[in-house]
Amino acid sequence: MATRPMARPVFATPPHGEPPMETLRARLAAARERTLALTEPLGAEDMTAQAIEEASPTKWHLAHTSWFFETFVLARFLPAYELFDPAFGYCFNSYYEFAGARQPRPKRGLLSRPPLERVLAYRRHVETGLQRLFDRGLAPQSEAAILIELGVQHEQQHQELILADILALFAADPQRPAYRAAPLRSLGGAPEPLRWIGYAGGIVRIGRDSGEGFCFDNETPRHDALIHSFEIADRPIANAEWLEFIDDGGYDDPSLWLFDGWAAVQREGWRAPAYWERRGESFLAMTLEGLRPLEPAAPVVHVSFYEADAFARWAGARLPTEFEWEAVASEEPVAGNLLDGGALRPMAPAERFQGHARQLFGDVWEWTGSAHLPYPGYRRPAGGLGEYNAKFMCDQHVLRGGCCVTPQSHIRASYRNFLYARQRWLLAGLRLARDVSR
């Protein structure tokens, strides 16, 4: 195993904050069209139901992303803009206290009205307003243009959520319907042996500054972080390896688990990742292509932080810190099995081991051992946008790298996703790390 010097992060994605206005207009249109395209396999009934508290109905996502543009952009910057329906503020606000009362999140599935046709009319109304705003002329560095860019990024987040949430819904349906049909494929063989790549410690630059292109506020400011020498696995943990954890009694040994994690195992009856179903001596897993056999070499998905942490302890390793992960990922191009590729499922590595970490972007979000906290010097954005990320900087853990339903233009090495430790419905897996003796 070779030890590689730790390079300072270099971002592979080109800056795309504050683009020329026609480029921004085109990106806006493309994002809105893709959201609708993702709903094409669904019926109106599919788009109204809500499976679990964390998930939202597809119809709600369609309306909420329009509410976001209406509330943050059109109501502020387009003269004489008329709200499509004043009641929609209550129905489709997510968690913004500044915007007032809202439908409780666990009860979004009760919004059988407005019907889908009216939600689609709402989207068209908002898009017409945005085009009018562009036609009036927008400066690239204007507040309105910056907020439209934020709205595009927000829409991309909800594209991923639409697919994750419809999977949760279909997994709860006893018929186990598929979001899309696909032929059965070869399951492939066992995963390649896990390999370890060493990195020398040192001071590294983490995060982003606003001049480097779009980023969310929780990625700022760019700052120095101290990393000690460590090793990281060359790929995420695979299904076959998780089966070994199960067979070795991983869900039965309290010594492997954090206190709250073991309580969750007992309370929820966890015996495997979410959407796994035991059939005799083997498992099937619910996917966007329906109930399928496990692919041994594909990354395990739909595990909580508690499960990822327990597996790492069982394996004699740990989860990487988010700073270790970013320092490694900043050396690699932002490419992989993302939404643009159309696979819609985690896949075995496309390339054999060549001395560097693989699958850092796409396939599965990777849990880190880091809490979602503000970076040194962080300043919460003023007004309602301060609620976007800042109020979630407590009791949540950071995930990195995107997954197979994340748009490629949305992800970057510095991107910080975050979830509560118990949550399993998003497409999250893990990569191991371990300390190096000094």
Describe the structure.
- This protein has 438 residues and is α+β, with helices and mostly antiparallel strands.
- The chain folds into two domains: 3-8 and 182-435, paralog of FGE (formylglycine-generating enzyme) (Alpha-Beta Complex), CATH 3.90.1580.10; 21-139, no CATH class.
- It has nine helices and 13 strands.
- The chain has helices at 21-38, 58-77, 88-92, 116-136, 143-172, 239-247, 259-268, 305-314, 322-329, and strands at residues 3-4, 196-199, 202-206, 223-227, 230-233, 276-279, 282-287, 290-293, 365-371, 397-400, 417-419, 428-430, 433-435.
- Strand 6 and strand 7 form a beta hairpin.
- Helix 7 (259-268) packs across helix 8 (305-314).
- Mean pLDDT is 93; it is low at 1-19.
Distance between the termini: 16 Å
Largest beta sheet, briefly?
A: 4 strands, mixed
Determine the number of helices (DSSP H or I, runs of at least 4 residues): 9
N-to-C SSE string, H for helix and E for strand: EHHHHHEEEEHHEEEHHEEEEE
Average pLDDT for all residues: 93
Q: Which ranges are low-confidence, i.e. pLDDT below 50, for 5 or more consecutive residues?
A: 1-19
Assign an overall shape: globular
CATH level-1 class of the largest domain: Alpha Beta
- The helix-and-strand class reads alpha+beta
**What is the CATH architecture descriptor of the largest domain?**
Alpha-Beta Complex
- Beta-strand segment tally: 13
How many domains in all?
Answer: 2
- CATH homology-level superfamily of the largest domain: paralog of FGE (formylglycine-generating enzyme)
